[in-house]
């Protein structure tokens, strides 16, 4: 990656949540993104630079803050690099990229996520809610009720926006979390005039696509992002 393609961001805050590290970055005023896009992060471990792609978890903001939810399970190199980071450090990131996006037309939408697949959908949902009164539904599945990224933020959004329906599932029940998986109640939220946005483990995404297609949803209404 050339110097022109690398942006220096400053870490404003860092929090740990089970297998995830939540980072808030301050980016230059020239940094642009669209809801649903991703960036590449470049970590230095010793003399080696490792690069990982991350969907951006925040909507475009006037204050140029950007949030990442970094999953480092099964990735010891990233885990070590993240462990060494602290507020005030800098992190090299790439320009935002990707074509996973909300349609321009105003439609009802269902967002279906598993694990860290919540990140691009959170960006879309936060951008969308103040701009439409169309029904917006999030079906989100994770392993543990204690490890739900951005749960408090989603609960706040659901209290502020009556057209937003939030359903969170885990292996066990917890506060504001039901027992099940992201597709447990999908049948209740299928309508032919809605669009569907999927991101998560490949098996979950494929199962959701199959279920939606079997229910008569056109492929053009189903939007997916690679996990």
From TrEMBL:
Matches recorded under PROSITE patterns: FAD_FR (PS51384)
Name of this chain's protein: Ferredoxin-NADP reductase
Molecular function (Gene Ontology), one example: oxidoreductase activity
Domain of life: Bacteria
Domain FAD-binding FR-type: 4-103
InterPro entries named among the record's database cross-references: Cbr1-like_FAD-bd_dom, FAD-bd_FR_type, Flavoprot_Pyr_Nucl_cyt_Rdtase, FNR_nucleotide-bd, MRET, OxRdtase_FAD/NAD-bd, Riboflavin_synthase-like_b-brl
Any Pfam family the entry gives: NAD_binding_1
